[in-house]
Amino acid sequence: MRPSAIRPIEWADGNVVILDQTLLPHREEHLPCRRVEEVAEAIRSLRVRGAPLIGIAAAYGIALAAHSSGGSLQERVRSAAKLLQSTRPTARNLFWALERMLSAAEEGARPEELLGEAVAIHEEDAQTCRSIGEHGATLIPQGAGVMTICNTGSLATGGEGTALGVIRSAYAVGNSLRVLACETRPLLQGARLTMWELMRDGIPATLVTDGMAGTCMARGMADLVIAGADRIARNGDTANKIGTYSLAVLARHHGLPFYIAAPMSTVDLSLASGSEIPIEERDSDEVLAFAGAKSAPPGAAVFNPAFDVTPAELIAGIVTERGVMGAPYAESLSS
Ligand code: MRU
């Protein structure tokens, strides 16, 4: 069954309307943002999340600022871009979308044209997801067990998703695959969001905690792993949701291919390797509690990086809208 009709962000009546992902899967509430500050808060608090969708939200945030009053258009756009750049450091797509909006503004785009640019970024991402899905589907053997992490679907993009787009495309052409969705501690994007999307689409999926991944592989339940990306360095080193690196190491140990699926707007050719990727660290409260209930002694020391870096040598292929890139990534990604 396809396509999924989930629309996590829309421009409506001069507002950016966001599906509040912190409330899913229990409540589907839409939050109208009237000011760029509200969009920035929604990105920071993960009401809107996933690298491509963060970029789309930021583009709409610039359109909102352009349509507001006070100062010149250029000043409003520049200060909105500065605010949005400060929200989350790792997703390359955020900076890519803002660079695109800023250059349109510098070329003299009026507010309506800036909105048009944001809509174009949104719509292009839907097409990008379709292409990623089609290229990636060829990598999934018939009936495979496909392990994934975090949420890389319609809730994370402007379309059907990246890694989840690949899964959706393979399923749509008759692959009787089964998904193993890692719950994704600490904020449970896999449990809350990926399972919600897959169950809506009727794609067979089983939820496991992150710590069960090795056992699933050892028992032959997974044939491959596919994950998304927040930023890919020139050499193919890839930052993605915390826990991705562990899956890649486990996959190598069990002789399983580990793939990344991401748009070219996630690739940062200015960074030579993953050690240069800025990794967001988030509030300790996210680890001290589980789904809102305290789960550790108050004051416990916490380390809470939101992302980790998987070295390119563990990645069997990077699926982009231009095709499946192989090693050496410095050559395939640059060309
Ligand atoms: O912290 P999040 O929920 O924004 O993290 C999202 C991820 O890590 C995704 O895997 C990544 O952004 C790719 S989304 C297509």
Short description:
With about 325 residues, this protein is of the alpha/beta class. About 40% of the residues lie in helices and about 20% in strands.
Tags for this model:
335 residues; alpha/beta; Four Helix Bundle (Hemerythrin (Met), subunit A); Rossmann fold; 7-stranded mixed sheet; 4-stranded mixed sheet; 11 helices; binds 5-S-methyl-1-O-phosphono-5-thio-D-ribulose
What's the helix and strand layout?
Elements lengths: L8 E4 L2 E5 L10 E4 L2 H9 L6 H17 L5 H13 L6 H15 L4 H27 L7 E5 L13 H10 L5 E5 L6 H13 L3 E4 L4 H6 L5 E4 L3 E3 L4 E4 L2 H10 L4 E4 L5 E2 L16 H4 E2 L2 E2 L12 E4 L6 E4 L2 E3 L3 H6 L1
Parallel strand pairs: 4-5, 4-7, 5-6, 7-10, 8-11, 10-15
Antiparallel strand pairs: 1-2, 2-3, 8-9, 9-14, 12-13, 15-16
The chain binds 5-S-methyl-1-O-phosphono-5-thio-D-ribulose.
The site of 5-S-methyl-1-O-phosphono-5-thio-D-ribulose has 17 residues, from helix 2 and strand 9.
